[in-house]
Design a protein that fits this description.
It is a single chain. This protein is α/β, with parallel strands linked by helices. The protein contains eight helices and 15 strands. A six-stranded mixed sheet has the order 8-7-6-9-10-11, sandwiched between helices. Strands 1, 2, 5, 12 and 14 form a five-stranded antiparallel sheet that branches. α5 links the parallel β9 and β10. α2 runs parallel beside α8 and α4 (about 190-200) packs parallel to α5. The N and C termini lie far apart (about 70 Å).
Length: about 350
């Protein structure tokens, strides 16, 4: 009996040691990363499916404007009524207001630095009659670009797909688009989400997306309000060429196609970019060339806000532009606000 007691005691001790080692190993594998104060995930409805592996979640956030300590830098693009960039302006031609209070401009420059650009190319079924026009637009965009720019391309129909990465040449992008046969539904909003995420680690500080599409969306996982929030809080300017060659046939268009222009406008306006609507296919390449030149012609306005409180509040921005000569009214595109630093 004593030997049996010692045997039971020995087995109990060994079991306790084994359990302790397993527990210690399990505890060592647990890593908890605290959420930073800058993370502001978008809340999605409980019935919305998770994004595919190729599409990063919308919870990725980037600061809305460049804020260096107390200096706010606002990129501004100015165009005339013919949608041509205006390049002859100087600091006195600009006024900037934050929450309706005029701010003193302390920094002014005209930027023509290289830029990282994501091309979002609609290859859904509705683009079958427009795909050759889309290819011609892409060629004209490249013909007017800075050779030092870098690009990636995303095609989208039922879901977004990486057509070409930034390491590949312009010729590769054009060749791959030439191999595509348009088909399927349209996941435009998902494509914008993927494009913004890829630009998060882009080569250059200046970043932009160019959408070429008829604007319809009938297959995205994300909602318009989610994407508007995403681009508003990012440092990516979104431009779009809306191809609407059948504007005179509204009864033949789906709900998504009818809302296409509105959705494009809302996304590009939120980012500080703009949408060019084209109702004639022959003019689409010209619109692409114009946007390419426009990206070369940004003014940057810098100011120290008169409101120095770091309360994390949303600050509205308004830019007023005065023509250098007796030109017609000018259009300024810029981000409409930013979040002040928190305490």
């Amino acid at each position: 009996m004593p030997s049996l007691t010692r045997l039971v005691s020995l087995l109990s001790t060994l079991a306790l040691l084994a359990f302790s080692q397993v527990f210690a190993q399990s505890d060592a594998d647990v890593h908890i990363t605290p959420r930073t104060s800058m993370e502001r995930p978008i809340h999605r409805s409980s019935d919305a499916p998770a994004p595919p592996d190729s599409e990063p979640a919308l919870s990725t956030r980037i600061k809305p404007l460049r804020v260096d300590v107390d200096l706010v830098l606002v990129p501004v693009t100015v165009t005339n009524p013919a949608n041509q960039p205006v390049l002859n302006l100087d600091k006195p031609n600009f006024e900037l207001f934050e929450n309706n209070q005029r701010q003193q401009l302390q920094f002014f420059s005209v930027e023509d630095a290289p830029i990282s650009i994501g091309l979002l190319l609609d290859v859904s079924r509705s683009m079958r009659s427009k795909i050759e026009t889309e290819r011609a637009a892409l060629r004209e965009f490249f013909n007017n670009a800075n050779p030092e720019d870098d690009y990636f391309a995303i095609s989208f129909s039922n879901r977004p797909k990486i057509l070409a990465n930034a390491t590949q040449s312009i010729g590769t992008i054009e060749a791959k688009l030439g191999e595509v046969t348009p088909d399927g539904n349209t996941a435009l909003l998902d494509a914008v989400s993927l494009g913004v995420a890829k630009l998060h680690n882009s080569r250059y500080k200046r970043k932009a997306l160019l959408i070429i599409s008829d604007g319809g969306d009938n297959n995205s996982r994300y909602r318009l309000r989610d994407i508007k929030s995403l681009v508003q809080e990012s440092d990516v300017m979104v431009y779009a060429i809306g191809i609407f060659d059948d504007l005179n046939l509204p009864l033949l268009k789906s709900f998504e196609e009818k809302m296409g222009k509105k959705w494009l406008d809302e996304m590009t306006d939120a980012s500080g970019g703009r949408t060019v609507i084209v109702d004639n296919l022959a003019r689409v390449p010209e619109a692409a060339a114009s946007i390419s030149r426009e990206l070369r012609s940004q003014y940057v306005l810098g100011y120290k806000p008169s409101n120095t409180v770091h309360d994390g509040s949303w600050r509205r921005i308004k830019v007023r532009v005065t023509p250098a000569t007796n030109e017609a009214k000018l259009q300024a595109s810029y981000k409409r606000g930013y979040s002040a630093p928190g305490r």
